[in-house]
Design brief:
binds S-adenosylmethionine, 7 strands, alpha/beta, 7 helices, 22% strand, single chain, 35% helix, 7-stranded mixed β-sheet, Rossmann fold
Length: 214
């Protein structure tokens, strides 16, 4: 999977050979969060309906609201009131609150709020930065939510999952979801894992599931 922009290929006169090489390497292999945004922005169009399954501080909600435009809809979920308050303020400041539904409920219940035919669902697994580490995502509800997301997705829609693990989050959820992905029928779904295998401190992993059936 390569993402090359014209910026990456244009070098200025003052670049030395070494820093050109270093810059190209770091810009080609982007971190998981950046990759997740790049993939989602390739499939989501103005007017689409999408889901932010883990609202948190609202960064992905705002990103999605920009992609769907004034005629689209973002359904954003979190179990913490703090997340709804922060995200509510963020989307209001950006003037996009009319296209965003903030839902205080577990993402495992998303089928109660979201109509079928959505284009993309984003998950950031782990806990809210600056929040209660005990209120992070959990394997059982995460897998239930991914199953619901796949059922709600339109053909050629994607579920994008960034897995934060290690530290207080531990390894259990990561191992469970990675095992679950391998069970998805390759006739109906492709699953791509983006992982830096030689970096310290458990760098986040990005997983993209693309759906091929209605
Ligand atoms: C890593 S944070 C998300 C960060 C967020 N995307 C942002 O832009 O700030 C994970 C969030 O998932 C939420 N969460 C945990 N369990 C959940 C569940 N069952 N349903 C929905 N959200 C949940 C947590 O409250 C936390 O805010």
């Amino acid at each position: 999977m390569t993402f090359i922009s014209s910026r990456m290929l244009s070098n200025t006169a003052e670049d030395t050979d070494i820093n050109i090489l270093e810059r190209k390497q770091t810009m080609l292999l982007r971190n998981s969060l950046t990759i997740s945004h790049e993939l989602v922005s390739r499939v989501v169009l103005p007017g689409d309906s999408v889901v932010d399954a883990t609202m948190g501080n609202g960064n992905d909600t705002l990103f999605l609201a920009g992609l769907v435009g004034g005629t689209g809809k973002v359904y954003a979920f979190d179990i913490q009131e703090q997340a709804l308050e922060k995200t509510g303020q963020k989307v209001k400041n950006a003037g996009v609150q009319d296209r965003v539904a903030l839902i205080r409920d577990g993402h495992q219940n998303m089928d109660q709020y979201v109509p079928k035919g959505i284009k993309a669902v984003m998950f950031n697994l782990g806990y809210l930065p600056g929040g209660d580490h005990k209120l992070g995502t959990r394997a059982e509800t995460t897998i239930a939510a991914i199953e619901k997301a796949l059922a709600l997705l339109c053909r050629e829609g994607i579920v994008m999952i960034v897995i934060y693990y290690g530290g207080d989050s531990g390894f259990g959820e990561k191992e469970a979801v990675m095992a679950y992905f391998k069970t998805l029928d390759a006739k109906n779904y492709s699953v791509l894992v983006h992982e830096f295998v030689n970096q310290a401190n458990c760098p986040p992993i990005a997983v993209c599931i693309e759906k091929y059936i209605d």
